[in-house]
Amino acid sequence: MSWARGNSKTAASDAQESELEAQNDSHLNELHSKLQALRGVTTDIYRDSQGQNSLLDNTSNSFDQFKTSLSNTSTRFARSVQSGKGNARTQLGIVGGVVLLFFLYKLFGGGSSVPSPPQGVEGSGRL
């Protein structure tokens, strides 16, 4: 009788152990899929950061080129004003006029970005 009792315990124990093994395998599979998803996200973040770094480098290079071009233009303008060739007052007047027109345009013409309310809409302030 004691042998049968011990045998039934081992059968139940084997069944419980088998069930625990199946649960462990299931949890390991879930963990594996989560790790794969995390790896995909990490790869996407890396690629995005590389793209942003490249964009920043290109922007920096563009601004450096613009700075150099503006500096060269300013130097040439100063040289032409100092040399006296081509009436410096006329050149300065043209540049000043363009700047003045730009500011007037921004102040009166192009600076208004507030849209007017649609016609015939209730609550537009009309009585």
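The record above closes out task 2.4. Task 2.5 opens with a second protein, given below.
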Amino acid sequence: MVTLSGAHTIGRSHCPSFSDRLYNFNGTNSQDPSLNSMYAAQLKRQCPQGSTDPNLVVPINPSSPNAVDSGYYVDILNKRGLFTSDQTLAHEPRNSKASESKCDDAPPLEE
């Protein structure tokens, strides 16, 4: 599954596909605590709460949105996974080593 999720290295997502992570995670009216706070702030600027603009999209892999590379894995290990499924997959104990191995020893980003 870790390798398959790497397909998210390229692509864009419409804001409603992940906005619950920013504004109402699990019905809490707050952001997902597993999301990097600086990344969440950036996403909130790009996808304002309550926006109905169907043209608002963001890259799935913020560090290298137009390249097939290990950037996706670096992002999710640094809590910059756009989708809950990606973030969860990377931080499950049995999957984190597989995600780390995909990073090509890239240094972690600081929050």
